[in-house]
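Long-time lurker, finally posting.

We've been working with glutathione transferase (Brachionus koreanus) and I want a structural starting point before designing mutants. I don't trust myself to interpret raw outputs, so I'm hoping someone here can both generate the structure tokens and explain anything notable. Sequence follows.
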Amino acid sequence: MPYKLTYFNGRGRAELTRLIFSAAGVAFEDERVSDWPGTVKAEAPLGQLPYLTVDGEKMPQSIAFARMLARRFNMAGSNELEQARTDVVVDTISDLQNSYYLKVFKATEKKDEVIAKFLSEDALVHLERIETILGLYGNEGFSVGNSLKWSDLHLFDVTSIILTLKADILDKFPKIKAIRKTVESNEKVAAYLKSRPETSF
Ligand SMILES: N[C@@H](CCC(=O)N[C@@H](CS)C(=O)NCC(=O)O)C(=O)O
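Top reply, 14 upvotes:
Generated this for you. Predicted structure of glutathione transferase:
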């Protein structure tokens, strides 16, 4: 197999790439490691996961290799402007994802309070921004243009985490909800979502 994705046994920062492979119908080796740090950390290019092994090269930085795959599989936009818009949407979603990791995932104390504050403040600010950018670039359940992009998959993945914290948090964000519906109803993605393992993160 030309592609191997190395990560922990979780969704985390690897799931976007798994979703891209699924939507494209491209096979990949889904390596899930448990011996951490062990030799895995020492062998990872930046001492972090995930990394993608492609053409014999280990590539770190999940967003960078997800973008490369999206381009290869025609999910990154069909011209320069569409590609830039797709990147804008991806970055706006990543701001929400990074805020979640920093404030919630890494919190060690008073987790309930941290989650409540995150949901009533940070998450809403980021979701508003995402809804705004979808209003500028989106169309009929797609975040950019009128076909599936990696930004749609990123939005689905990151909002899935937020929904586990508050099931009705997207009720005021119809454009985000419409994109989730598009992703869930994509036949290849739906098959993957049905078969993927349940993990703790
Ligand atoms: N910007 C990097 C962040 C990678 C990252 O923070 N990885 C975490 C897991 S999600 C990690 O390897 N943590 C363990 C460590 O840094 O030792 C990416 O998106 O790939």
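Before you design anything, note these points.
Strands lie at 3-8, 29-33, 51-54, 57-60.
The mean pLDDT is 97.
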